Amino acid sequence: MYYFDELIVSEIKKKNEVALRELYKTHYPMIVNLIRSNNGTEEEAKDIYQEAVIAFYEKVQQPEFILTCKIKTYLYAVCRRLWLKRLAEKKRYHGNIQETETFLGIEEEMNAIEDNEQRFIRMRESLASLGEPCRGILEDFYMHDLSMEAIRDKFGYTNADNAKNQKYKCLQRLKKLFFATYKEDLP
């Protein structure tokens, strides 16, 4: 187990509310992402996550409780199961959910999620090191959904095609930065 997980479990056993809040805060974004990417809303994600955290809290209070995986994996599996049940109730999921069903591959799925999180961190770092005006152009286009005309006006290009051409060049620079960083992380 990781040190953070050991500390959280130990503090939750002592009914430490600060530890419970930290646990809640740490894994909440992952669950929002899970629910929203599977036909849910942030409000539904909040409900599901609260149920899972309460279930985890109650399990930890049991004297025989032993955590055999990461807290993150445990919460993800519980939330996924609760969400599939809720979708089945709403007739939005047509699979067969049985009480004895286990989610094989949760560890693999969690590893993929952690890999994606690392890629997002590298992308954010690459974008930050890109410099202006490239960073601004890419953020405006991809994150703020500005049109090429709006970008043309904001950055002073003569026409939208010139702005589009600059965006393409910036994107190529970003890719080079990202993959240069990525290669450094490979064994």
TrEMBL record:
RNA polymerase sigma-70 region domain: residues covered: 23-92
Keyword Repressor appears in the UniProt entry: no
UniProt keyword annotation of Transcription present: yes
Natural source organism: Ohtaekwangia kribbensis
Family annotation (InterPro entries): RNA_pol_sigma-70-like (IPR039425), RNA_pol_sigma-70_dom (IPR014284), RNA_pol_sigma70_r2 (IPR007627), RNA_pol_sigma_r2 (IPR013325), WH-like_DNA-bd_sf (IPR036388)
Keyword annotations: DNA-binding, Sigma factor, Transcription, Transcription regulation
Name this polypeptide is given: RNA polymerase sigma factor
PANTHER family documented for this protein: RNA POLYMERASE ECF-TYPE SIGMA FACTO (PTHR43133), RNA POLYMERASE SIGMA FACTOR HI_1459-RELATED (PTHR43133:SF8)
